[in-house]
Design a protein that fits this description.
The chain has 331 residues and is an alpha/beta fold. The protein has 11 helices and 10 strands. The chain has a domain of 222 residues: TIM Barrel. Strands 1, 2, 3, 4, 5, 6, 7, 8, 9 and 10 form a 10-stranded mixed beta sheet that branches. α3 packs parallel to α4 and α4 packs across α5. Bound molecules: ligand PBG.
Amino acid sequence: MPDFPVARPRRLRRTEALRSIVREHALDPRQFVWPLFVRPGTGVRTPVGSMPGVFQTSVDECVKDAVAAHAAGVGSVILFGIPEAKDPEGTGAWHEHGPVQDAVRAIKREVPGLVVMTDVCLCEYTSHGHCGILRPDGTVDNDATLPLLAREAVSHARAGADVIAPSDMMDGRVAAIRAALDTAGFGETPILAYAAKYASAFYGPFREAAESTPQQGDRRGYQMDPGNGAEAIREVALDLAEGADLVMVKPAGPYLDIIRRVKEMPGAAGIPVAAYQVSGEYAMLKAAAANGWLDHDRAMLESLLAIRRAGADLILTYFAVDAARALRGAR
Ligand code: PBG
């Protein structure tokens, strides 16, 4: 490699046309997954205060969002449910006509070309807000939770979900869900495991959106410690061994190093890696843009491109539709 003055990297930055032909990474709206919050009722569209542009909607309104996402070129949506009622076991999670189950059927009917993923977890459905059922001492009972998650997953598959995405972080849940799906005749339904999911402060706004804040304690007993990197490799290896088809790192922006490490794992070669730009990442950018401190569209696209550059194949983001439209406008 020659040195300056022969070497002048700026030569390739002179015009947008030149920059565009040598750019290494680009965003494609097909890779975006848009999280949607579904609740009972009709004609419901309730704004989430800490997440401007995000709503809790009833199934009919949710279908409108799905149609808009598809029209914008977004590849997938992922559904979260807010049930009619909560109880200690989270039994609403596998209700045949729960908001998620009804939304899956309605979206697949209206927009069959849109991939519909469902988040599998009990925290939105339990009265105590934890991701599994509790022992008398208040700790989460891992093994007793597995059959409940499996039941939820099968009910989503029966409704027509294209991808099942467990986010609970119980040990062994991918194997339990895989076995239950296979037994129920859904051997071809893939599992996207939230494999490296950290106990993060950046989930705050989501818990308002999903009404899933734990009544007592926190999730550090089951989600990963933010100080750990190598453990993410172990979590991914375990989920793959249990049958995960895709794996996720979450959050995304503060954990770009983890995305890169997972993408480069020899044992995960060829496995699509997803990353979740979580509610707190979205809320920070929205708040700064609302104050005029950041350019909304540029900061949005740069934050997503960074996640892509780190190695994510799929990006779960509340910006999905806005980013898809901004990309189209930029072309
Ligand atoms: C449910 C779940 C959470 C998120 C996705 N699935 C919250 C949590 O673990 O408390 C967070 C998503 C976000 O913050 O955008 N277990």
